[in-house]
Design goal:
The protein has 467 residues and is an alpha/beta fold. The strands form five sheets. Strands 5, 6, 7, 8, 9 and 10 form a six-stranded mixed sheet that branches. Strands 4-3-11-12 form a four-stranded parallel sheet, with helices on both faces. A three-stranded mixed sheet has the order 14-13-15. It is elongated, with a radius of gyration of 26 Å. The two termini are 38 Å apart.
């Protein structure tokens, strides 16, 4: 089955065909580093991680670029309020972003270009647009894209341009969907900007938000590349403006496939500080919630459906992950004989897993296939032990699946010396048939998040996934 993605531009699923055989060039809108990222941001980043990992699973070489927006209206305002340069102000949030994506198991992109390092590229694009008569300068030194002179405007968002309200121009980076306004490519310096400005061939000032992505994507991926992703809130005006300015400057098609993920809700409501349901990733981690459970919840709803993030779902996610990890751990004790060959079972479910994800990343179907496979293998194991060879086949299957999901492979934090001593005391109590003491120690360890499992071959332990 060919891989198909829903293309926002055409509003239909299309067979994915990269421009260059075997290679995918992909751009993802990254963070604006003025604060710590919230779970709505990470809904998009986890979706993009699933997309990236699955493309690699399919054998593609992926070249992914994710921008870092380190200059915009909010950053300038907050940096000036703090008496810091924008580089000083954004550093801790930029560092935190990379710590957070590592915590969530999000694979790093090949390039993370920062806007402030690419001013010359932005100036070059703006100059080309001006040379073609599609931009104009205002008295304050700003430069605006002339939307009325670009007839293709509105294709991505499927806007009827003739029915939209006619504004003149807008200097801030976002505006209402029902309005059509010329947007800023370059913002002339004004006193409230303070020291934030660049002296360039097109004047003193700073870039508009939209031109940043066009400049950085085309620099590292070329004028025409395969995939551009983001949240549905990016479709208009941001991505619509990216298309207009990029194609105006280069004369080439900008992107082949546009993939957008839906909004994240929290306990059924829109996430907001006023509703008391606004969570940054770090706040959830500080509550002791396991990062793998958060990743699973963000991953397990199809990217084009609204995701309702709830604490019940976190608990269910923890149980699902525990089931997967327990199954994988149970493979550590194979027998050396036996007749069961499970190649056909594994091949069937690996094929199912791939076919579901080929269908526009149908993650719920793929996860269902994975758990059905585990159920079927466990049913066989009730009567026939797995051989060493069987274990190798199943382990290889799990590794392939988890190269996409990244929820099974976890290294258990080692026991402290005190915890190890408690386990040894319990083993001694069991040997002496002091069951009350053995149960007391088990309960004490459980309070610390350590689960003990007594088997014929001895006692093993694991840490409980916190939710």
């Amino acid at each position: 089955m060919a891989t198909r993605f829903y293309n926002t531009m055409t509003r239909r699923k299309e067979i994915f065909q990269p421009i260059e055989s075997g290679k995918v060039r992909m751009y993802t809108c990254g963070p604006t580093v003025y604060n710590f990222a919230h779970i709505g941001n990470f809904r998009a980043y986890v979706f993009e991680d699933l997309l990236r990992r699955y493309l690699k699973f399919k054998g593609y070489e992926v070249i992914q670029v994710m921008n870092i927006t380190d200059v915009d209206d909010k950053i300038i305002r907050e940096a000036n309020k703090a008496g810091q340069t924008i580089r000083e102000f954004t550093r801790k949030y930029r560092d935190a972003f990379f710590e957070d994506i590592d915590t969530l198991g999000i694979e790093r992109a090949e390039v993370y270009p920062a806007a402030t390092d690419h001013i010359s590229e932005m100036v070059g694009l703006i100059s080309k647009i001006m040379d073609k008569g599609l931009a104009y300068r205002t008295d304050d030194g700003s430069i605006y894209f002339k939307v009325s002179e670009y007839p293709k405007y509105g294709r991505l968002a499927h806007l009827n341009v003739t029915d939209m309200k006619r504004g003149t121009r807008v200097q801030n980076d976002e505006y209402e969907k029902e309005e059509l306004r010329d947007f800023a490519l370059w913002k002339g310096w004004k006193a409230e900007d303070g020291p934030v400005c660049w002296e360039t061939a097109i004047g003193k000032g700073r870039p508009g938000w939209h031109i940043e992505c066009s400049a950085m994507s085309t620099k590292y991926l070329g004028n025409h590349f395969d995939i551009h992703t983001g949240g549905v809130d990016n479709i208009f005006p941001h991505h619509e403006n990216e298309i207009a300015q990029s194609e105006a400057a280069t004369g080439e098609k900008f992107v082949n496939y546009w993939l957008h993920c839906e909004h994240l809700m929290v306990e059924g409501d829109k996430m907001s500080k006023s509703a008391g349901n606004f969570y940054r990733l770090r706040e959830l981690l500080d509550k002791g919630i396991d990062a793998s459970a958060i990743r699973y919840v963000l991953l397990s709803t199809h990217y084009r459906q609204k995701l309702n993030f709830t604490f019940d779902k976190l608990e269910a996610a923890a149980k699902s992950i525990t089931r997967l990890r327990d199954f994988k751990k149970s493979l550590d004790q194979p027998v050396n004989d036996g007749a069961l060959q499970i190649d056909q079972i594994v091949e069937k479910y690996l094929r199912d897993f791939e076919e579901f994800l080929d269908d526009d990343l149908n993650i719920s179907g793929a996860l269902g296939s994975l758990f059905r496979c585990i159920h079927e293998i466990n049913a066989f194991r009730e009567s026939t032990p797995l051989t060493d060879r069987d274990v190798g086949v199943v382990s290889n299957f799990l590794d392939k699946v988890d190269s996409v999901l990244n929820v099974m492979n976890v290294s258990e934090r080692t026991l402290s010396s005190e915890e190890q001593q408690l386990i040894e005391k319990r083993q001694k109590a069991r040997a002496e048939r002091n069951w009350a003491e053995a149960d007391r120690i088990r309960d004490e360890l459980l309070k610390r998040g350590i689960i003990l499992e007594d088997t014929p071959s001895g006692t093993s332990w694991k840490r409980k996934i916190k939710t």
